[in-house]
Amino acid sequence: MQKKRLLFFIVCVVLCIQFSAVSAQNGDVVGTARYTDIVAYVNNRPIASYNVNGYTVIVAEELVHYGFLVEWNESDRSLWIVRNPEAETIEGMSGVCSYGQHDGLKYADILETDIRTYVNGNQVTGFNIGGQTMIYLNSLTCVGVVKWNAEDRAAELVLGGISMIEKPPVYEGEIPYEVDPYRPMVALTFDDGPFPYTTERILDTLQYYNSRATFYVVGSNVRAYPEIAKRLGEQNMQIGSHTFNHIKLTEASDGVIAEEIIATDQATREVIGVGTSTMRPPYWVSNERVRRVAGLPVVTWSVDTLDWQNKNADVIFDTVVNNVRDGDIVLMHDTMNCTADAVARMVPALIDAGFQLVTVEEMAAARGWTLEPGVLYSKIY
Question: What is the pLDDT at residue 2?
Fold first, then answer.
């Protein structure tokens, strides 16, 4: 009997190994990456980075926001990353991107994907983590020079020449400087930030079009990214609480709920210069006890982009522009590139449609509403 059990166990293990190998060969998601303490930059702009086997890697698709063309070829399952071949070279550029295999490194935590990745025609190592194509930062030597700052633990890709990506057209319409209570308005709201690059891109768009929004910040992120958080205050964005640790408040004691709200408010006052005036519970898990203990007006939404689920800028854009009405509150997340992409198109489109982009508090005041602690608000109409 014991021999039979042992034989059955061995057979199961072998089958699992074979199944895993087949999955990896088919390009399925394998392995995990973790955020690294190394800060990565592209031309002095932060880019989300990860640590895989001691090396800094970035998401290949994100390079579209740094002056690259990133195109997918379905016919041969390849990802092509292109930067202007006429771009000026800088000292240290090799002109050839390295394949990215370091000292015969064998990937212990990840497996390569069947997707082939090319930078300016040079094949580089690409691998699949979480459904995204990752590449080594220091494999991009054909388009720039990677510099390392040991003191700040920062790696930067300095690009040569100019971008192939043109700047967006300048908006020439009328931009309101004050809230007109007699004109349509909408409140864009963003959860989970602040976050490097994506929050900054959204703020850039709002600043360019002289518009405002409401940011439901996570207190720990305010502490982690103070310079980005400060911009929220400098641009007069409304600051709301999304708790300090992004926890499910219904599963927390009254004391923990109070601590989460107080710690976030303290962080925003110290870093941004203003406190949290409203709140939005993480995961939208709330009840009467949570609202009472939190002691703030609770703001939800009337238009949900589901950006965290669809991860598609076109879908996010269409959901808002095709459905929004005067007094709506729109839910998005400022931690996602797809959302930043959508916002860059959404803001001018809404302005062209006659909407003012205001904060939740500004919209409530314009309609004569007073937001009361413990009361839930999903729209202002």
Answer: 53
Which uninterrupted H or E stretch holds 126?
none
Give the angle subtended at the CA of 128 by the CAs of 113 and 166, to the nearest 5°. Answer: 105
Q: Would you say 32 and 114 are in contact if contact means Cβ atoms under 8 Å apart?
A: no
Q: Are 87 and 161 in contact (CB under 8 A)?
A: yes
**CB 49 within 8 Å of CB 40:** yes
Catalytic residues: 191, 333
* Residue 155 φ/ψ, nearest 5 degrees: -115, 130
pLDDT for position 32: 40
Number of C-beta neighbours around residue 254 at 10 A: 12
How many CA atoms are closer than 13 Å to the CA of 35, on its beta-carbon side? 6
The residue that leads in pLDDT, 140 or 202, is: 202
Q: How confident is the model at residue 12 (pLDDT cuts 50, 70, 90)?
A: very low
CA distance 165 to 270: 38
Residue 84 CB contacts under 8 Å (≥ 6 apart), including other chains: 161, 162, 163, 164
**Residue 86 one-letter amino acid:** E
Residue 116 in 3-state DSSP?
strand
Please, what is the Cα angle at 323 between 281 and 173, to 5 degrees? 105
User: For residues 374 and 291, is the Cβ–Cβ distance under 8 A?
Assistant: yes
Helices (H), the chain: 2-25, 198-208, 219-224, 226-234, 254-271, 288-294, 307-310, 313-321, 337-352, 360-366
Model pLDDT, residue 3 = 52
Report the alpha-carbon distance of residue 317 to residue 346 in Å, rounded.
6
pLDDT at 102 over 80: no
* Cβ pair 227, 46 in contact under 8 A: no
State the residue for tokens 């690059």. Answer: 197
For residue 99, pLDDT beyond 60: no
Q: Judging by beta carbons within 10 Å of its beta carbon (0-12, 13-18, 19+), is residue 304 exposed, middle or buried?
A: middle
Per the structure block, which two tokens stand in for 361? 């508090």
Handedness of CA 271, 275, 277, 280 (dihedral sign): positive
Q: Tell which wins on pLDDT, 168 or 322.
A: 322
